[in-house]
Amino acid sequence: MLEELKVRNYVLIDNLDISFSDGFTVLTGETGSGKSIMLGALSLLLGAKTDKEAVRQGEESAEISGIFSASPAVERWADEHGIEIEDGTLVIRRLIKVNGRSSYTVNGSPVTVKEGEELGHLLVDVSSQHAHQSLLKMDVLRLMVDKAAQTEALVADYKEKFQQLRTDEKELRATEENIRKAAEEADYMRFSLRELEEADLKEGEEERLKAEIEVMNSSEFLKESLTAAVAEMRTASSSLSEALDVIRKASRKDQRLTEYSDRTENISIEAEDILLSLRDHLTSIDFPESEMEEKNSRLMQLQRIRRRFGGSITEAIRRRDEFRRKLEDAENGEALLHSLSKRVEKTRSELIDLGEKLLSERKKAALKLEKKVQENLHRLGMSSAVFIIKVERVDSPGPDGIDTISFLIAPNKGEKLSAIQETASGGELSRIMLALKVSLVSGGTDTMLFDEIDAGIGGAVANAVGEEMKELSKSEQVITITHLPQIASRAGVHYLVEKEEKGERTISRIRRVEGEERVKEIARLLSGETSELSLEHARALLEVQGV
Prior knowledge:
Strand order of the largest sheet: 2-1-4-5-6-7
Number of helices: 18
Structural class: alpha/beta
């Protein structure tokens, strides 16, 4: 249940605090006074998208917060999302900055807009003034039947199985296409695979060969350089050996020279080792001409393969593995296709079984729901209306089931049943929507908000709608935005939305009206003015309702 709504710097509202009670609450006001603004603020708490234009001009941010009492369904949602609830209270806060950034928290924990929307559906059932138009959409009709059938788990299982079927069918089609292409390209792939396998490709081999060939091409230069280096190192090694003898003799007279003797000995040993290594390397530079030809031939082979198969040895290796896999698929194609086809048929059979169960539950729920709706329509002034919900099987399973759902109505006695899309007027659609809402009350949400759902009706029908909302408020919190005195007079709490100019700014205000103030507002709704006649009529209307 919605207990409190606070709005700061949102469109025309600078500062609003409004408390709600259980039962029936109504909001009225002149057109353009700001009723839709308050609804927009509440919608933000229920997961609507933000708009930086909503920030009141001249302010840095807008803030909307609401306090709700949590139902068991809301408590389960909070537990699943790791949000703590104390004393059964939920505090939702939306902050919108003028730069378009926003934050969304539930009991201090950040949530996404999608999560907020999920929570919003559990908190408040919103019916806007154009909501009855949604009755023209089959998806909406199916959702209503499913709500009556309480088949959430079954619907979820069906949708999951439908997606699995889509995935399995996609894999089967892809495999069929791959096998077809493999068969068409088999000769080319076998020839290419043979060439690639014979090449025995290894990562980095091309770079290694280039380095080795560079050494071979520079062998004469290297020989000359190393020969000169060996001669110099031989001289240096001899000089170090002589220097070491002299330092050792001197160290016998001066022990401080021992350190230098040791260091010179280490250098002499390292120089001798370098000399030997240079000699060995010089010997290895002699390459047979056949080895040079062999390496050049291998390099040319790798370069040819690289050019033919993707521009790199890495890509050529990938293509080799791809050819192997495709040829294996082609060779094992019949067995693979048979396996995948069996899987698709198994998934389709399981999907149809779920669809049959769903169809059965929907048919049973439709019979019960149509009876309730028809009874409610009779109370709403359509005393001769006949209302039928038709659930029919279709040939192929769809994303929502194996059925189509249509709502049929004969609004007046003697008329034939037709789809509501073809027959019902705007006022009749409004009453059908209200009748459905009342029929579907199940305790899933504690708050029902009607935004001018009474559009297009009046007189005795408006009385019936008001009475139905009053009856509904005995089990649910009902909040209604209306222009009809027949509905407003039946509410237990009446709020008036007004627009006023303050300095150079326009501000929307919401205040509770009682007593004579409420009489005046009902009179305005009756005739557009507060004449003695309209005031007298308003008092009479309120007295009838026991206000």
